[in-house]
Amino acid sequence: DIQMTQSPSSLSASVGDRVTITCRASQSISSYLNWYQQKPGKAPKLLIYAASSLQSGVPSRFSGSGSGTDFTLTISSLQPEDFATYYCQQSYSTGFTFGPGTKVDIK
Amino acid sequence: QVTLKESGPVLVKPTETLTLTCTVSGFSLSNARMGVSWIRQPPGKALEWLAHIFSNDEKSYSTSLKSRLTISKDTSKSQVVLTMTNMDPVDTATYYCARFYCSGGSCVYWYFDLWGRGTLVTVSS
Lengths: 107, 125
Hints:
Chain A is an all-beta fold. Chain A has strands at about 5, 10-15, 20-25, 35-40, 45-50, 55, 60-65, 70-75, 85-90, 100-105. Chain A has a 6-stranded mixed beta sheet with strand order 2-10-9-4-5-6, with no helix packed on it. A 4-stranded antiparallel beta sheet of chain A has the order 1-3-8-7, with no helix packed on it. The N and C termini of chain A lie far apart (about 35 Å). Chain B is mainly β. The interface of A and B includes residues 31, 36 and 43 of A.
């Protein structure tokens, strides 16, 4: 199975900050990479699919980039509602593995 | 409105078999652009994909849990059922069903675009 890692595991940031989260796959997955946001007690929400495509209704401050094994989720200007845990997920092969998550909290 | 809803027991005993049902509305389980997965999340931990079923009834399972899982669907009832045998306290988690959707004309990129609210299953004697 393809293994996914994320860094950092957690970060503290302030409203207005630019935040970058990195996801790495154990083998090349082309652009088959998705990003989700999860708030406590809620189901995950799709933010980005195919590495860089913004899901309908998601604010444009979220963006994704990368291909192969290395990917990035960027929040250009952190808003109060963005404090959450973020997960990457590969859809290249069965197993559809998720990363361990990155928790973004308030500095 | 497109929704998924999980149902099943909140408490199971060790060694018992868990049966969960995902009832979908607003889309058909026969739609070739869609499938349904089960995903779980132990308290305070990460998401773990368990199993998937496509519209053509093709199934896939987590490598580590394959021997314990069975997924099936009843298109007429708009339901996807997951069974997990030999439950253990480490299987305590919130279990989600999610729609796996493919975008674009060539249906290349797949992602979980819709999720149920999840159901917490506790394994304890």
